[in-house]
Amino acid sequence: MLPNYDLPLYRPPSEGKNLIIQVTLGCSFNRCSFCSMYRTKEFSARPLEEVLGEIKRLGRDYPTIRRVFLADGDALAAPTDHLLTVLQALHAAFPRLERVASYALPNNLRKKTVAELQSLRENRLSLIYYGIETGSAELLKRITKGATPPSMIEGLNQAKEAGLRISATVILGLGGQNYWQEHIDATAELVNQVALDYLSTLQLGLDPMIREEFFKKFREPFLPQDDFGMLEEQTRLLQRLDPPAPLVFRSNHASNALALAGTLPEDKDKLLALLTLAGKGQMGLRPFWVRGY
């Protein structure tokens, strides 16, 4: 029997087939104006004995599990000793365990020392999912991200030094029509300073419960980008990306108008050619009715 999850429950698309263990509930920050994921929850760390009991039971029922995702949005907010105990219990319960992954908030990643992150890596926490959203200092303030470009670069470099793989996301359309160039140029500049392993784009989508909160952060009316504006942002981003190491690039999240996949810099020209076709209306976009956030 699978866990009795505390809903709502979210995970990255690539974790859809993997076991999810809720180490924490909700999000310790929970103030990003573009995100409604955990607005209905109060943040808390689940009691350790409860988590360990769940892992032990699941190990009896599903001993061949190979991959685990630590939820909710903020597992790294838990103390390192707490997380190490959970990781060691996972290894004992699932002898074939290959990988453990987790979301990582900017501030909570920076609060862990490189030595702490290394100890987590040595116990099979090998991948973190990290929302960059934008590299623009001004837009980071307006979306209440609780981070600055230098602080994100610092935390991401710490994670890389510790041997963690990083899957990062940016949000197309986040600056609307007025700030899109600043948004994209600053985002490319940030990404080019960190050796990410994966980079994905999402298109901005706002839950009705937070739309007013998001819009009021902009002094002038927010003018949303249409699909072709999003494609222009995607093009500008790819043109400016010059990662320090090979980077797997994806825009296959359900929110995107155009699904792209490749490795940079090897596939840059191919991806830009597809964007050119789409921008001219010579390549079909994903219908609105199949998109999701």
Short recap of the structure:
This protein is an alpha/beta fold and 293 residues long. It has helices at residues 48-61, 80-93, 106-111, 114-122, 137-142, 149-161, 180-191, 211-215, 227-240, 268-279, and strands spanning 19-22, 24-25, 44-45, 67-71, 99-103, 125-133, 165-172, 198-203, 247-250, 261-264.
How does this model look, in words?
The chain is of the alpha/beta class and 293 residues long. The protein has a single domain, classed as Alpha-Beta Barrel (TIM Barrel), CATH 3.20.20. Helix content is 36%, strand content 17%. It is built from ten helices and ten strands. It has an eight-stranded mixed beta sheet with strand order 1-4-5-6-7-8-9-10. α2 links the parallel β4 and β5. α1 packs parallel to α2 and α7 runs parallel beside α9. The longest helix is centred in the first third of the chain and has 14 residues. 38% of the residues are buried. The mean pLDDT is 95.
